[in-house]
Amino acid sequence: LTWKKCTELSIEFNRAVKGTRSSPPLPAVSFLPMSMFRIRDNLVSGGFRYLSAEPFMQGKFTKFNGNNGYIFNPRNQPALSCEKDGRKSIALYNDLAQAFSHWTYQYTLACREHVLVCDIQGDGCTYTDPTICSGKRESCYGKSNMGVKGFENFFRTHKCNDICRKLKLNATFTGRESVSTHRHLVADRFG
Predict the structure, then answer these.
(1) CA 108, 109, 115, 117 torsion: positive or negative?
(2) What is the 3 state secondary structure string of 8-76?
(3) Contact, 129 vs 121, CB < 8 A?
(4) Least confident window among 119-128, 154-163, 178-187
(5) How far from chain centre, in Å, is Cα 142?
(6) Is the pTM higher than 0.85?
(7) Among candidates 125, 134, 116, 132, which has minimal Cα distance to 31?
(8) What would the pLDDT profile of 46-89 be if each residue is shown by its tens digit?
(9) What contacts 187, CB < 8 A, 6 or more positions away?
(10) Burial letters 30-59, b for 16+ CB under 10 A, else e
């Protein structure tokens, strides 16, 4: 479910970014496709284990943020060369990843879902193995879901960048945001 939700949110994020009419246009974010396998195992309860797998990721792997508050610092890092868009730098990919995480929180809060996609890592703007922190700790997003603590960790270290500002994301997080505070954002900013 994490991969599916992240993919859905990346599509909406790409629409929102496209709506900013950035010049030059920002690259689209995406997640590697994932496959789920059910494997018979008589040693476990229920008789099956489940395994998720993604294709091997080529390129320069970078961890941009984590559910523990980690934020990548692109200073003194070499430029990434990406076949899809060789002119983009690691700083731009970092800004895009941070803005994506921030946007997922604000967008889903306005939609009454309250999640934050973090643990963004991959090559450029193609991501793998994300984490979803949910306001509902008992959600189906796995053991890395730190709930509201994950929101606090991210916003404790997050600094809004030009992409956040173009998307008109709120620069502050108090932990007391309400649906009514952000409801207008979906209609006004994200279509």
Answers:
(1) positive
(2) HHHHHHHHHHHHCCCCCCCCCCEECCCEEEEEECCCCCCCEEEEEECCCCCCCCEECECCCCCECCCCC
(3) yes
(4) 178-187
(5) 15
(6) no
(7) 125
(8) 999 988 888 999 888 999 999 999 999 887 565 554 434 444 58
(9) none
(10) bbbebeeeeeeeeeeeeeeeeeeeeeeeee
Distances in whole angstroms, Cα of residue 68 to Cα of each of 5, 42, 48, 90, 174: 20, 36, 32, 21, 17
| pLDDT at residue 58 in the model | 87
Of the candidates 41, 95, 119, 129, the residue annotated as catalytic is 119
Contact 152, 175 (CB under 8 A): yes
β-pair partners for 63: 121
Q: Is the pLDDT reported for residue 41 higher than 90?
A: yes
Helices (H) and strands (E) in the chain, counts: 5, 8
Contact 145, 131 (CB under 8 A): yes
- The predicted model gives 138-159 an average pLDDT of 87
Amino acid at 36: M
| DSSP 8-state symbol, 177 | -
Q: What is the mean pLDDT of the chain?
A: 84
* Distance in angstroms (rounded) separating the CA atoms of residues 134 and 146: 7
In the residue annotation, 95 being an active-site residue is answered as: no
Q: How far apart are CA 152 and CA 148, in angstroms?
A: 6
